[in-house]
Amino acid sequence: MYNLKAEFLLKIIFLFSLIALISAYFIEHVLGHQPCNLCLIERIPYGLSIILIFTVFVLKKSEKFIVLLLILTFVFSLSLSVYHFGIEQDFFQESTICKVKDFTENITKEDLLKQLNERVISCKDVTFKIFGLSLTSINIMINFLFIITLLKIFKIYEKNRQ
């Protein structure tokens, strides 16, 4: 690791990603708020960032490349969150991903009937808010801050290269 500031910022992103995942599972399993399919997908970048940042600290090489992967991960996450927010605000219609419970190809009649009887959480429904903000809108802010921070880290690595 070239720079203590970059290392510190990566540790902050790691910690916030961990807290975001723990919070999401707490809200789901302890408080009983069921997530929609997009909410579940929006957790993936946090898990991926934990793995990538852990890799940076263990391998201590390819930091610049991994930071670039993290930037791309959170740009994807930001795009997904903006789309989800658009669905919540009725700017966009729900896609099939919001309505399907099981993504596997091999689905039997019994499975289909079981899914029809289960309550599928709509991507429009906001079941949990913090300070009046949906978790999707909070996710947008976090992703935006992560992207800015990661760009700053990338710039630090770029300077140290020269």
Q: Would you mind describing this structure in some detail?
A:
By secondary structure, this protein is mostly helical. It has a single domain (about 5-160), classed as Bromodomain-like. The chain is built from 7 helices and 2 strands; from the N terminus they run ααααααββα. The protein has helices at about 5-30, 35-40, 45-60, 65-90, 95-100, 110-115, 135-160, and strands spanning about 130, 135. The chain has a two-stranded antiparallel ribbon. Strand 1 and strand 2 form a beta hairpin. The longest helix has 27 residues, at about 135-160. The model has no long low-confidence stretch (mean pLDDT about 85).
Largest sheet: 2 strands, antiparallel
Number of domains: 1
Distance, first to last CA: 15 Å
- Helical content, roughly? 55-70%
Short description:
The protein has 162 residues and is mostly helical. The chain has helices at residues 4-29, 37-41, 44-59, 63-88, 96-99, 109-117, 135-161; strands at residues 129-130, 133-134.
Feature tags:
single chain; 162 residues; mainly alpha; Bromodomain-like; 7 helices; elongated
